[in-house]
Amino acid sequence: MAATIIDGKAVSKKIRLQLTEEVAEFKAKTGITPGLAVVLVGEDPASQTYVRNKEKSTVKAGMYSEVHRLSADTSEEQLLNLVEKLNQDIKIHGILVQLPLPKHIDETKVLNAINPHKDVDGFHPVNAGHLFIGQDSFIPCTPHGIMELLADEGVDLKGKQAVVVGRSNIVGKPVAMLLLQQHATVTICHSRTADLGAITRQADVLVVAVGRPNFITGDMIKPGAVVIDVGINRLDQGLVGDVDFESAKAVAGSITPVPGGVGPMTITMLLKNTLAAAQKC
Prior knowledge:
- This protein is an alpha/beta fold.
- The chain folds into 2 domains: 30-116, Rossmann fold; 140-262, Rossmann fold.
- It has 10 helices and 11 strands.
- A 6-stranded parallel β-sheet has the order 1-11-8-7-5-6. Strands 3-2-4 form a 3-stranded parallel β-sheet, sandwiched between helices.
- β2 (35-41), α2 (45-60) and β3 (64-70) form a beta-alpha-beta unit.
- It starts with a strand and ends with a helix.
């Protein structure tokens, strides 16, 4: 029996409708319009697409959108000066610096310069630390979206075996912490994990975020498992995930497609974080 397809577009749409109502209520009550500033450095096509989608989604939700498009030769000092200006701008409640940045700019230095109270991407060490110890924080958008999908699917994580393939600061580590907070037993795998398939086949919930097309195949999945595919890989035949969808859906109980799974949730969680930042200001 083929797996149930987890429709990220439908879940995202439902959350955004509710979010738009919450934004309208907040504006009516306080007179404050939640504001998001996105900074794009360079001409990376994928980044430009992401930024356009973020701008459009922010406005549609009733929020204030500000996009700063900078040339690829922008200096690190110039970028840091812009970040500080946005830190001080009362119209701006959330700041997002689109990654990747040009090689001559230190990403860590730039992300650390963002005011933690405006860090709606959840990458600042203060927010990362709060997440690690289970305190209130801005949760990185993709992991946040994954947890919303699992909740909408009715997945009870208590006591479940959860395996995360990938250990990035953006997805792997934070989603592992979130799964742990929901009382799952969590294993993190990576490029040096021995006999990866033996571990992934134990997973009741399998989250894959490695950036390698079709890396996880059906024979590496426990029958009936929930499979969350974070990967977005552009091949000649189009977008594919980190999970080989055709072989995986024959084994899994439910699975996210690519596109249309985790992707739509990321911007939705960005908007949710921006509203939360405005509510806390």
